[in-house]
Amino acid sequence: MFNRPARIERLDIASGRRILAISDIHANIPYFKGVLEKARFSSKDELIIDGDFLEKGQDSLKTLHIVMELCKMGNVHAVCGNCDDWSGVFDVAHDDGADEHLLHYMLWKKSGLLWDMCNFSGIDPFEIESFTAVKHTLYKNFREEFEFLRTIPHAIETEKFIFAHAGMTPGKALDLQSADELDRCDGLLTKDWKFDKWLIVGHWPVVLYGENTVCANPIIDREKKIISIDGGCVLKDDGQLNCLIIPDKNSEDFDFTAYDPFPVKTVLNGQQGSKSSYYIRWGDSTVQVLERGEEFSLCRHVRTGYTMNILTKYLFTDNEFTDCNDCTDYILPLEEGDQVSVVETCSDRYFVKHNGVSGWYLGELI
Q1: What is the structure's pLDDT at 1?
Q2: What's the predicted TM-score (pTM) here?
Q3: Helix, strand, or coil (residue 86)
Q4: Counting CB atoms within 10 angstroms of each CB, which of 82, 158, 160, 295 has the fewest?
């Protein structure tokens, strides 16, 4: 699977057309439709779907069909992300050891493309004894879908931009990159890498780059020429689906819009922001429960020793030591009249988003 040659597409975009880039839809159709509407997407735009439009959400097969239909328009272009790269593991020619893993994955997630395909084909995933025979049926029933996923590029290159799902290796020609270099590069912005062309990526939720605060807006690093746009759709409870807006193929006057479904309310009482805070995130989320409560529990983050109150429902187990959902004790600086999106309503506070930044609000909302 590793070191597979990458598929590259060169795209010549006419002047005067906006370029819209969206990544990591993760089978969330309402978010996808919502952000397209907010961006006012039309036939006058070029839309780049920058990978990971499948998996993790609940409608992978429907999302795939939507993306396939959009790509027939001529102005919509899909990039293969690691969650879309089924050609690397779905081999009907032989069982290379991946079949048992695919079956285990499907039954564990109870969602995803293969799960949807099985159910659509009248196959009960829980009655499958061997996936090797089943995959031949799926390939027969969904030959066009697999062919689409097998042929979409791992990167799209224009005169000034490269759209790759996760990253690329600097100083190496794009045609020499492997598929895995383009769709499986974690934490690109943490590397001391710079590029000649603008590199637009998703894959790594931008909130994971935060330390004390949580912001889901795209990160534009003009020195490195990297734009990271994964807003945590599906993966984060307070996530959003970002749409990067490039006004013209030669423009660097970047803008964006974002969609989430949270109700918008108005702040009645201004408040000062936290002087200190911490963001417990995926990959480093082990806490010790010091005092478990019905709504909030006092916890100590094991690695840093930082102590904060965490929503009890965010704790994964009832054990003293447990991992937890992403959480923060950051209190947002807000003024009367500010508009906020309400993610959680608690007995004495709200967890809200303001301009893409998540935190707590302790006053009243209307």
Answers
A1: 47
A2: 0.95
A3: helix
A4: 295
